[in-house]
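Whether sequence alone determines local backbone shape is best considered at the level of individual chains. In the encoding step, the backbone of a single protein was reduced to a row of integers, each denoting a local shape. For completeness, the protein is quoted in full, as a sequence line and a line of structure tokens.
***
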Amino acid sequence: MAKKAVASLQTGSKRLTKAIKMVKSPKTGAYMFVESIMAPENVNDFLNKK
């Protein structure tokens, strides 16, 4: 699974990161993108999770 992008976002006093990864659908075999906005320390867990 490949990382597509990681962008830093700042809203007020909170620092957030938007992570996008490409995952293969088990049903169709097609690839789709999963996006999530989270704290920067959670990005590696998100990208390593299947």
About this structure: The chain has a mean pLDDT of 83.
